[in-house]
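Protocol step 6 of 9: fold each sequence in the batch and record its structure tokens directly after the sequence line. For illustration, a two-sequence batch is reproduced in full.

Sequence one:
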Amino acid sequence: MAMSKEVEQKISQLQLIEQNLQNYLMQKQNLQNQLIEIESAQKELETAKKAYKIVGNIMVSSAKEDLVKDLNEKKKIVELRIKNLEKQEDKIKKKAEELKKDVLSNMKE
């Protein structure tokens, strides 16, 4: 059973979409790991008497309030990036589903 060029193109498109989806999932996982690290650092700062920050290859003493503020900003940015990735992920999943249905219906004909 020979497939039409159109169906072959749609299958190729679908494979590309699946690869993009995998990339988004990896990016999301990296961001979630960053978020866990940030939350862990925030928790440690709550009980710490002294606070230090790594700058390049050295560790310097820093005001606890400044570090808390920095971590809160980083957390907001990471959460926003995760949210954006999830939106893109949803769009890609919908597009993939449409293509799958289209390919399957064309193959049945």
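Sequence two, same batch, same settings:
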Amino acid sequence: MFLCLSTVKFNSRLLLIILALLVITPLIGHYYLSKEEKDGFENSYNTHSKVEAYEDYGVLRATDLKHRIAELVRIKNSVNNELRNIEGKRQKLLSELSLNHKKIEDAKTELIRQEAELEKLKISVKQAQVAENEAVAQNSPRLAPPTVILPANPPSFIPLVKTHSYKCHNMKNCFDYSRCSLTSGFPFYFYHSEEFSELVSTSLNKIVFQVLRYNPHFTNSSDKACIYVALIGETHNSINTTQLNQLPFWGGDGRNHILFYLSKNMYNRPNFDQNINFGRAIIAQSFWDEKNFRLGHDILLPASFGPPGGDVWMDSPYMLPARRKYLLSFEGYKNVNSSKNQQSFVEMVQTFLTQTTIDQFYIKTDCKNNRIGSNVFDWCLCGNETKRKEFLTQSTFTLVPAPLDIDMISTAMMQARIYESLKFSAIPVFLEHDRIGLPFDEVIDWCRAAVCIVGERVPELHWLLRTIPDNDILMMRRQGRMLYEKYFGTVQSILDTTLALIRNRIGIPPLPVIDVPSPSIFSENFKPIKMDPIIPDAEPEESLGPLEPPFKSPDFKRNYTIMKVQGYELWNGWGDPFKLYPYTPFDPLLPSDAKFIGSGKGFRPVNNGAGGAGKEFCQSLGGNSPREQFTIVILTYERDQVLMNSLSRLNGLPYLNKVLVVWNSPKPPLEDLRWPEIGVPIHVIQAAKNSLNNRFLPYEAIETEAVLSVDDDAHLRHDEIMFGFRRCICT
């Protein structure tokens, strides 16, 4: 027990001693450290005490002090020199450090640029592999038009069957297709007046000859012609079969012949012999009866009262306002006693349109002082064109009745009414439309430009005209203006339209449109000086597309199908069936899934159809059209350096085919001018004249459907150009 108590006491004392040591030891250390810090602080202000503390200044002589001072000055200068050297070394190191930092940043920038360039190359290689696979998997090469096939001899003689007329209900029964190959280009030969002076007046034939020479299908080679065109009429003697047989290439039955009757006299019938036999020839005239008109073979012409050629839009009035002074107009007189049926229609028109109403009408059916004798049974016109213009230009609609002679489907007087209504922008109302023959109705939809009603609708005519809104009135008026300017306004337009209709029947496409020449401003032996392009400071963070070699857009792929698939639009919408274009903005597109099911050639779907974000979107062109490139046309005038800067910024632009520079200045560029090398050809065109419109000309050097036209000082980023290009090909 005692041993245990003593042990406990000993342990307690030991713990107290250890605790005291732990408390006292830090206090002692803190004391000495504080004292040392205080002494060091006081000594910091006496750094020179040991140097200047001499034992006894009084015992030193003046020379010793001077020596000491000189020694101190020397030490000071030495220290200053050392400090300057150290400062110079420090500045040098700082400069080297800054330079190294700049090199590092440049290296990082170059690394990013090289990585972007590598990414572009990878995308380009991928696209090239896709193109290679398409070429390998292609079953047949792209077809090109075969050699032009033309006849070598004039038509052979086939005796004419002695019947009144051939039953030519279509071109197959009466047309020789062997003379008109699909690749022939539809050449036609026009008879000179010396070859058939008895069939037409010499003056009219010369006018028509001068007009037809502007047609691109015209040829002087009678042996190679597909069609033979002859003008008849305007003679004192009647035309008979014997005179037709005297045509050099009549061939016995008149096959592949078009006989135009362009009489300026609308009050007399064509002067044909009663027993004339036109054989297989196509007759084109304005006078037609239902018995002799061979539907699908003969052609009903409009009135040829216009000038020989040129623009006719200047003679037409303004199309606004939509509603004019008179709601409906008509002026004419009957030169014979009409049938009861026809007379009832006329009386109904006068009765129902002259009732009490706020609308105004111009209806005149007597013309006592302006009558002209005629042997044609129809509603004759009153006065001259100048007089009729006064009320037609104030009429919203004008009445065009069917001929009084129920056997006639068209007369020159009726065609004159149609011609003047279109010319003066009065919408024609065809009364008894079901028995009226309209010009070129084989291809023209007349009900888009006119009101077509049957005779039984006359009591409702006023109500019907009132229901037509202003926007439809203006649309019909614009459509009529287009028909007038394109097909009826001049003798040239009538002849060209007739030939185009025949060509359309036999399935021959028109000739390609002629591009504007692109003469280079440089001579053949001159090679411009090249230079590296200026790399832009700010490049896009990601690739905008692959860099591909220039390739031409596929063109003229629908030569033999556009007339069948979009023939209606050609004649009634676009109004240009006379030329063949390499591509149009109205070409049909494939559905979005067709590129994955059998029609994927040339397409570049985004991420093979899986979609994705910006990276996948930039790697492929996408869209519902095959791959495409674009051409940039730059207009410039004596601003060389500005042009060079603009060209340099185009370096590395994806999908760029070539750059066309339209040089508007009469002065050629300097020979020492350095042209940037941008990866695509730069073609400099010498403009014929200084005009801002030169940028819009269809130059033959343009090989892509998409074209970007800019000024030489335009500054567009690559992403902006690519956005516009993608928007262009997707619309």
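Proceed to step 7 once all outputs are recorded. Observation for sequence two: The chain has a mean pLDDT of 83.
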